[in-house]
């Protein structure tokens, strides 16, 4: 799933490559992914791109027509950029393409989604705040206003496992399954630790790990075209997606806990005092 660093990489690319271009055509291939009707998606046609912004994991293309094209790539979505857009006809239901946007210089992009479970979403909106997922976002952890005390206040009183807190977009925006694993590994913290029980020292470590991990990942994504962002993400991971490999810090084996549709990865030596976490469905630690 694209998370904050990859989404920021896409935003930076679109801001540089698409600003000043005029939309000549918007082709809807998956109508179920279109979540708005007012303004119509056709309102983008003839509009000139004036910039791009990120809201959590949402990409926001701004135009001079007072309309925003906003999209969320969900778990299996991606943006495919073309310097010369293909002339092939898109057949709804017969392609992974959900949306195609064409620009006046011949370039453009497709929003694509792999797999059978379709969660990608796109919107035409007058304001980002009109998109429900954006309206309920928590603070951005890389915003200058996001301080150590901001994080402490968000954690206070929450009897929720810290892994879930970091992934909850209404609490902290932009972090998903992969980077929550990386942050908790850097903070030397169990994913099962309850947010409300963290000490001041724990919060200090978690705050530093959050800012450092995300800053480094955003820097690594900067300047890369969309086609290279996924590989850059994989190469930068210390534990996520590296089950069975050696922890780069201590050399212990990276382990997984499996859920219904995904997994988390961690290092027992670095994060849980050597205890191996049981499958989350069992809700206990193996002794």
TrEMBL record:
Domain Formamidopyrimidine-DNA glycosylase catalytic positions: 2-120
Catalytic activity reported: Hydrolysis of DNA containing ring-opened 7-methylguanine residues, releasing 2,6-diamino-4-hydroxy-5-(N-methyl)formamidopyrimidine
SUPFAM superfamilies membership: Glucocorticoid receptor-like (DNA-binding domain) (SSF57716), N-terminal domain of MutM-like DNA repair proteins (SSF81624), S13-like H2TH domain (SSF46946)
Entry's Gene Ontology molecular function annotations: 8-oxo-7,8-dihydroguanine DNA N-glycosylase activity; class I DNA-(apurinic or apyrimidinic site) endonuclease activity; damaged DNA binding; zinc ion binding
Cofactor(s) the protein needs: Zn(2+)
UniProt xrefs under SMART domains: Fapy_DNA_glyco, H2TH
Protein name as annotated: Formamidopyrimidine-DNA glycosylase
GO biological process: base-excision repair
Family that this chain belongs to: Belongs to the FPG family.
PANTHER family per UniProt: FORMAMIDOPYRIMIDINE-DNA GLYCOSYLASE
E.C. number(s) listed in UniProt: 3.2.2.23, 4.2.99.18
Record keywords, A-Z: DNA damage, DNA repair, DNA-binding, Glycosidase, Hydrolase, Lyase, Metal-binding, Multifunctional enzyme, Zinc, Zinc-finger
All copies of domain FPG-type, residue ranges: 238-272
């Amino acid at each position: 799933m694209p998370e904050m660093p990859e989404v920021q990489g896409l935003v930076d690319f679109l801001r540089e490559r698409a600003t000043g271009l005029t939309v000549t055509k918007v082709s809807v291939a998956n109508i179920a992914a279109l979540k708005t009707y007012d303004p119509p998606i056709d309102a983008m046609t003839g509009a000139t791109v004036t910039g791009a912004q990120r809201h959590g994991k949402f990409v926001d293309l701004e135009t001079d027509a007072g309309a925003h094209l906003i999209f969320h790539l969900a778990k299996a979505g991606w943006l495919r950029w073309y310097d010369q857009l293909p002339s092939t006809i898109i057949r709804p239901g017969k392609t992974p393409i959900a949306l195609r946007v064409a620009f006046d210089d011949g370039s453009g992009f497709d929003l694509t989604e792999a797999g059978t479970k379709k969660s990608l979403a796109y919107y035409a909106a007058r304001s980002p705040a009109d998109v429900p997922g954006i309206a309920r976002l928590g603070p951005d952890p890389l915003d200058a206003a996001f301080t150590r005390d901001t994080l402490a206040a968000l954690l206070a009183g929450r009897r929720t496992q810290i892994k879930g807190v970091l992934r909850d977009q209404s609490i902290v925006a932009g972090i998903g399954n992969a980077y929550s694993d990386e942050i908790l590994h850097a903070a030397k913290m169990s994913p099962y630790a309850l947010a409300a029980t963290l000490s001041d020292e724990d919060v200090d470590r978690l705050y530093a790990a959050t800012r450092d991990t995300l800053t480094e990942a955003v820097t690594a994504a900067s300047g890369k075209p969309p086609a290279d962002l996924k590989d850059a993400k994989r190469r930068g991971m210390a534990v996520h997606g590296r089950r069975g490999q050696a922890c780069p810090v201590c050399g212990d084996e990276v382990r997984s806990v499996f859920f219904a549709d995904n997994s988390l990865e961690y290092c027992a030596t670095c994060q849980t005092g050597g205890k191996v976490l049981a499958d989350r469905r069992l809700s206990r630690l193996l002794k």
